[in-house]
Write a structure and sequence with these properties.
Layout (H helix, E strand, L loop, with lengths): L2 H15 L4 H42 L1
Helix pairs in contact: 1-2
Amino acid sequence: MSTLIAAQEALGRIRGMAQARPDDQRLYVAELEQENRMLREENRQLRAEKFAIARALRSRRRAA
């Protein structure tokens, strides 16, 4: 899922939370925390991929 889309969806849920009951608010928070964990993992994977690509490019430049 695109990070921008996820952020927009989270913002919509946060706006809805202002009108929700306390039990619903706890559910929203739990969902947001789970989504935050997933986005952090996605970010970690993308950064690792970015650095792997950069390493490969450096190696190619040295070999050329």
